[in-house]
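Reminder to self: tokens first, then the designed residues, so the page reads top to bottom the way the pipeline ran.
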């Protein structure tokens, strides 16, 4: 290293140390079937060093992408609900921990451990997707046909788009990484420096990359399989496109409607019984249903590979006393419970909130304590995208775009009638602002504890109006530390990331 530019010398040393620590920690979880290694990847039959030695190595790596939906739920589900529901008006933090309460009382800082974990986990997932996308065309295996290569690449692009979509909605300007960094040596560090220390893209640039990935994936991704909703299919890509075009940086309501209609054309529909989505079987030993006609993408769990997240939110109904000795995250708020009661919405309420007796009383009396109920056992599926969300997005586009209030009202009525509620009254159906408020209320009740509420408020510029008022009318909420304002729409970037990468700039307000 004696001839290395001094600008990079200490960066090289620091990176090498952090990489060794990372490698050491990874060894604890080593799985030779699904993890990169010279056994599954890395060396081909001629002894040449490669990324994927054959078709089997590619498929093993693709499996790791799918396994992220089951095995690493912290960032894309557990923490996303903390952001979307407890940082909004649907829930309280739930416990007294310093990592959770700042989401409830708007005291978030870049030092928050949840935010740091999520940023790193998302980037790790992005790197996994990039590894397949960048290297699959170099695989020398005739059984890996052109059609298979393009299909696998499309699935990885959908996965990458999902990651970027979550990240850009949380943080705004983020690194958009579509390449794979080369090895760091004294000779290469100047060439790979930008790969290891990437700049932030603007929000619009991030959304354009998501759009690009999804449009390209639509060409060769697998079709929707009614019997297997765990796949990154064309329908998942269309759903994400509908959601992307509803966001401010590239908003296009005509395209929202186009892709919502395309999802409908793929055969999705509302289930007749709302409990089919989240319920248990009659014996209480398994999920009531998987792969319903309403589910677009879900993570599924079976005996031997249970969903551990359930005990972060409440009881595991398949193992009643497991991990039920400490306060849980994402406790339903009094304001949300009141919203269900005011609407007379019993069907969705009983699938969303449940009461148990506890040994703690952080927010409610211990003998009648509410819990979020949409993830209730180790065998509950986690539904990432479902058709009711798509329908309500179309209603939003009809209200905000071409202004078909009657069409939007018909969609909302369809959702309400499934829940046993009456149609919207005439005085609401003809007023745009009243319809927008009706839509927001319907999305809140329909999609409670599914990671939507905060992002709905942000997308429709309702954060200050709703969140600054909630602390005065919800007696159970922790005192507001900082008022919500225009800088509240994005969360802080982890301070450790900023310390390590001089190109990353903290979001305003933090």
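Designed residues (510 positions):
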């Amino acid at each position: 290293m004696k001839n290395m530019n001094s600008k990079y010398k200490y960066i090289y040393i620091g990176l090498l140390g952090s990489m060794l620590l990372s490698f050491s920690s990874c060894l604890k979880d080593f799985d030779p079937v699904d993890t990169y290694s010279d056994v599954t990847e890395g060396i081909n039959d001629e002894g040449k060093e490669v990324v994927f030695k054959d078709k089997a190595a590619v498929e093993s790596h693709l499996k790791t992408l799918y396994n992220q939906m089951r095995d690493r739920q912290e960032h894309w589900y557990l923490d996303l609900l903390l952001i979307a529901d407890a940082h909004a008006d649907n829930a309280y933090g739930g416990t007294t921990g310093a990592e959770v309460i700042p989401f409830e009382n708007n005291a978030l800082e870049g030092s928050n451990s949840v935010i740091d974990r999520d940023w790193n986990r998302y980037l790790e997932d992005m790197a996994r997707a990039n590894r397949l996308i960048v290297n699959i065309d170099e695989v020398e295996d005739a059984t890996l046909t052109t059609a298979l290569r393009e299909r696998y690449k499309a699935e990885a692009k959908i996965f990458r788009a999902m990651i970027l979509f979550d990240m850009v909605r949380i943080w705004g300007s983020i690194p958009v990484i579509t390449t794979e960094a080369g090895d760091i040596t004294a000779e290469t560090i100047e060439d790979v420096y930008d790969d290891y220390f990437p700049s932030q893209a603007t929000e619009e640039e991030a959304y354009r990359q998501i759009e690009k990935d999804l449009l390209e994936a639509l060409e060769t991704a697998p079709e929707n399989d009614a019997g297997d909703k765990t796949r990154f299919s064309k329908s998942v890509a269309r759903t994400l496109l509908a959601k992307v075009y509803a966001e401010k940086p590239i908003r296009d309501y005509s395209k929202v409607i186009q892709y919502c209609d395309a999802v409908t054309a793929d055969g999705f529909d509302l289930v007749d019984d709302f409990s089919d989505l989240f319920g248990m079987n009659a014996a209480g030993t398994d999920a009531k249903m998987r792969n319903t006609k309403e589910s677009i993408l879900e993570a599924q769990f079976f005996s031997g590979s249970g969903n551990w997240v359930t005990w972060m939110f409440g009881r595991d109904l398949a193992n009643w006393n497991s991990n039920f000795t400490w306060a849980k995250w994402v406790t339903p708020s009094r304001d949300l419970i009141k919203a269900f009661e005011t609407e007379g919405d019993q069907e969705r309420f009983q699938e969303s909130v449940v009461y148990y007796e506890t040994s703690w009383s952080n927010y409610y009396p211990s003998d009648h304590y509410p819990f979020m109920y949409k993830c209730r056992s180790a065998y509950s599926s986690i539904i990432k995208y479902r058709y009711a969300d798509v329908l309500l997005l179309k209603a939003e586009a009809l209200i905000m775009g071409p202004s078909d209030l009657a069409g939007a009202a018909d969609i909302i009525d369809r959702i309400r009638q499934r829940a046993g509620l009456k149609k919207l009254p005439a005085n609401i159906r003809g007023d745009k602002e009243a319809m927008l408020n009706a839509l927001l209320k319907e999305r809140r009740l329909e999609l409670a504890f599914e990671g939507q509420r905060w992002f709905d408020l942000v997308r429709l510029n309702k954060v200050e109006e709703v969140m600054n008022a909630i602390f005065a009318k919800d007696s159970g909420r922790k005192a507001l530390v900082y008022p919500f304002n225009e800088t509240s729409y994005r969360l802080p970037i982890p301070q450790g990331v900023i310390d390590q990468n001089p190109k990353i700039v903290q979001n305003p307000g933090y």
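Residues 146-171 form the longest helix (26 residues).
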